[in-house]
Specification:
Elements: E1 9-10, E2 13-14, H1 15-38, H2 45-60, H3 67-89, H4 95-107, H5 115-140, H6 149-198, H7 203-214, H8 219-234, H9 238-248, H10 252-267, H11 271-331
Antiparallel strand pairs: 1-2
Helix pairs in contact: 2-8, 3-5, 4-5, 4-6, 5-6, 6-7, 6-11, 7-8, 8-9, 9-10, 10-11
Length: 335
């Protein structure tokens, strides 16, 4: 038998084998990209379905249409009430806490208010679970034998803090991302509202039209506008629908839009002119935020410049001179 010569190697790795693996990974990535492009889904499909269910709920005046869904909701409500009673018996549940968590859930895009009780319960249960897990790994099993006393205590404290603040940090992060996405699309939404108002559409029809137009670019904002349009059609007081929009979105600009809408509904002032002024203010505010970030950039770049760029620059500039001086001193004794 003739032994095949080994292939070329680089840093101890077979170049042909590594190239074959990388080619396979690239082929799989291309196939996945093609599949994702072909089977792209409408981001508003699920949201529209949920909003249509909300429309049916408001129109029919019941919580759920079918008896099966009604029974499921009643069961969930009973479980929530039982947990609420247990927490109240432990003296760890207050109505102000529930309202605060409910608003945080609304800011994060979660409209199920019953989850507030579970979030409060999670702040009690998670520290116990993570604390027990950390105590077992750190002290009983001694999984980290090299850790000293301070490091062990610090790890236990971090686990307890993460268990207590974890649910709130998750909601805050999700709400912050959602608020930023809504802030980006709000000026465009106001411009479309101005066009719809000048075209003669009613307020609820204008909100519905803007939701359809901006649903793909800004799904979160389209979702909120569509729900506001539904509530404007079915709620007894139109002011309540606008207040619900301000309640669900933690954004000062949205509260300004709601105030303008309420004033136009009450006093009959021109809606298009007021919205045009608000849109110009929001665009100027967005430009000012961009300029502020650009102005902060030199101060932010100072530390990376000192730590990473200047040392390399000194080595490149002074390195050849240092090598020449070193060679000159090394050659002197031999002469």
């Amino acid at each position: 038998m003739i032994n095949q010569a080994p292939g070329p190697t680089l840093l101890g790795f077979d170049v042909v084998l590594v190239g074959t693996i990388l080619a396979g990974v690239a082929a799989l990535a291309v196939m996945f990209a093609i599949y994702a492009a072909v089977t792209v889904k409408d981001p508003m499909a699920k949201r529209v379905r949920a909003l249509n269910e909300r429309r049916d709920e408001l129109k029919s005046g019941i919580v759920k249409a079918s008896a099966k869904k009604r029974q499921s909701l009643v069961r969930k409500t009973e479980q929530t009430e039982k947990m609420k009673e247990k927490l109240e018996g432990m003296k760890v549940l207050q109505q102000s806490q529930i309202e605060e968590i409910q608003q945080k859930l609304a800011h994060a895009g979660i409209r199920n208010k019953e989850l507030a009780v579970y979030v409060i319960a999670g702040r009690i249960v998670l520290p116990l679970l993570l604390g027990a897990l950390g105590f077992t790994l750190i002290y009983l099993i001694d999984y980290f034998p090299d850790w000293g006393g301070m490091k062990r205590v610090g790890a236990m404290g971090a686990l307890l803090f993460l268990g207590y603040k974890g649910p709130e940090l998750f909601l805050k992060n999700k709400a912050s991302k959602r608020t930023n996405l809504i802030r980006k699309g709000l000026p465009d939404a106001l411009d479309l509202l101005v066009i719809c108002a000048e075209a003669g559409l009613t307020v609820d029809a204008a909100f519905n039209r803007v939701a359809k137009e901006l649903g793909r670019a800004y799904p979160e904002l389209g979702d909120e506008f569509a729900l506001t349009a539904i509530e404007l059609s079915f709620l007894g007081e139109r002011k309540m629908a606008f207040n619900n929009l301000a309640y669900r979105v933690d954004l000062e600009a949205v509260r300004g839009v709601v105030t303008t809408m309420v004033q136009t509904e009450r006093y009959g002032t021109p809606l298009a002119s007021a919205l045009r002024v608000l849109s110009a203010e929001f665009r100027n505010e967005r430009m000012m935020r961009a300029e502020e970030k650009a102005a902060r950039l030199p101060a932010i770049m100072t530390v990376p410049l000192i730590l990473f760029i200047l040392p390399v620059l000194f080595i490149v500039i002074l390195g050849p001179a240092a090598c020449s001086i070193s060679d000159a001193f090394a050659a002197k004794p031999g002469r």
